[in-house]
Amino acid sequence: MKVTVIDGQGGNIGKQLVKSIRDSFPDVCIRAVGTNSAATTNMIKGGADEGATGENAVIVASRSADLIIGPIGIIIPDALLGEVTPAMAKAVGESPAQKVLIPLNKCDVLIAGISNRSTSELLQDAMDKIRAIMKL
Fold first, then answer.
1. Domains plus CATH for the chain?
2. What is the pTM of this model?
C-alpha cells in the first residue's frame, strides 16, 4: 500500500502521523509531501521513507497513492494560510485514494459537528481509521 502524508506550515501534524504510522506499520512505505520544505523536512524526521515538496509533488503523489492522510485543509483551495493551491486541493480531492483527513477548526474553516477535541485526540482517531484501512 502506498501511503502519502500531506501537510503544510511546520509539518507538525504530518510528523506525528508519520511517526504513528511507522510505529504501527514498520514495513509500509510512507511518502511525505509538504506544501513547503519545512513541512517535508519535519515529516522525514518523523520517519517517512521519501519526501517531496510543492504543488507538483502533491499532484503527482495524489495520482499514485492508495491512502492520503493529512489535515482537512489539503482539500480546500487556499487553506493552510494559502499554502494549498487550487491545483493541490483538486488533485487530492480527485484522487482515487482513500483519504483520512484530520478535522482541524483552523484557518477560517469551522467544521460543524466536531467537538473541541485536542489535536492528540484527533490524531488518535485518525490512527484508528488508518489501522482499520490497513488491515483490509
1. 2-134 (3.40.50.1220)
2. 0.92
